[in-house]
Design brief:
Layout: H1 3-17, H2 22-29, H3 33-40, H4 48-58
Helix pairs in contact: 2-3, 2-4
């Protein structure tokens, strides 16, 4: 799985696990809501600074964004468009 897809999936997974809407996360992280949406769909590549803001807004660590799903792990269905 590509790194961008993993990051996008994990942002969405962590947000939903914490019961946050995209707007709530955006406010907590100090970024635009539409940017959160584009990140979750894999349409944007976040900088390290943005990942830090998201981690703070999600009360998590940046490392969690790069955790690859385990084989057979269900979880949140990805809503990511693959760039070919």
């Amino acid at each position: 799985m590509k790194a961008g897809v993993v990051v996008a999936r994990n942002i969405r997974r962590l947000r939903l696990a914490r019961g946050l809407s995209q707007e709530m996360l955006a406010v907590d992280a100090g970024i635009d809501r539409s940017y959160v949406s584009r990140l979750e769909r894999g349409l944007e590549n976040p900088s390290v600074a943005v990942l830090e803001k998201l981690a703070r807004g999600l009360a998590s660590n940046i490392e969690e964004f790069f955790a690859a799903p385990r084989a057979g792990e269900g979880g949140v269905p990805p809503r990511v468009r693959s760039k070919i």
